[in-house]
Amino acid sequence: MTVFVILKFVAVVIFSPIYLIPSIAVAALGGFLGNVYMNGQLSTKRELSNAKAPVLGHFGAAITGIKGTVLYDGLATNTLNLDVLRSNITIIPQVPELLSGTLRQNLDPFAEHDDALLNDALRSAGLFNLQEEGDKTRITLDTEIAGGGANLSVGQRQILALARAIVRRSKLLILDEATSAIDYETDSIIQTSLRTELGKDVTLLTVAHRLQTIMDADKIMVLDAGRIVEFGEPSELLKNEKGLFRALVDESGDREKLYATAMGASAS
């Protein structure tokens, strides 16, 4: 057994230099090609993500990577303290995260507000529209929330995230497909609440595929393959017979309702 081990050791010593140089070459080449692949993959995924992934998923990082200047209340964001900037911006993603604890702690982690205000926020966010008064599974301020909101549906998490944003009163509220998992009726209630509950000094930026969510917006930006193809008031965009936005509205089953909403918003 000892002789066999010695022979193996001698063989390793003799033959290792033969494979050392090729091994180094393969490792270097593999690392280079792997780096090229990862760069190519990242670029492709970002381009493809325009259609399927949340557009503003990396908004915080994007602010510092944009060429030019991004202004917030007339101030360049690259001159502001990052913590202060983040405290004044609320982003609600397509699949929001919740903290482990009671719903009250999720809405008001520092216990700054009373229950009446928190319940008003839940009502404005559409939660009470989804549950009956006597339902034993009804979500209340004392309901325990699992880590990440694992014991809730995506739609319920979106509503609670909206309620948290209403309580927080940020000056810039960004909804990134934030009502995509909610039915049309509840979505209508939420959109109405957002426009009445939020102050006039709050800017609401909505990213959505659902047309009814954005038809009464002040301005609409239409993206196609990651490029801005149209921008303006809904009523003005609908006047363009060859426009992409009008084509989307005309193909919708709620065409008349969408037109009425856009014209009503224009008149108000």
UniProtKB/TrEMBL annotation:
**Domain ABC transporter spans what residues?**
5-250
Q: Which UniProt keyword terms apply here?
A: ATP-binding, Membrane, Nucleotide-binding, Transmembrane, Transmembrane helix
> Record's InterPro entries?
ABC1_TM_sf, ABC_transporter-like_ATP-bd, ABC_transporter_C-like, P-loop_NTPase
Does the record carry Magnesium as a key word?
no
Query: Please, which domain of life does this record's source organism belong to?
Result: Eukaryota
Pfam families per UniProt = ABC_tran (PF00005)
One CC-aspect GO term: membrane
Keyword Phosphoprotein in record:
no
Q: Which residues cross the membrane?
A: 6-37
Give GO terms: molecular function aspect only: ATP binding; ATP hydrolysis activity; ATPase-coupled transmembrane transporter activity
PANTHER family with a match to the protein in the record: ATP-BINDING CASSETTE SUB-FAMILY C, ATP-BINDING CASSETTE TRANSPORTER ABC4
Q: What is this protein called?
A: ATP-binding cassette transporter abc4
Q: Which organism is it from?
A: Trametes pubescens (White-rot fungus)
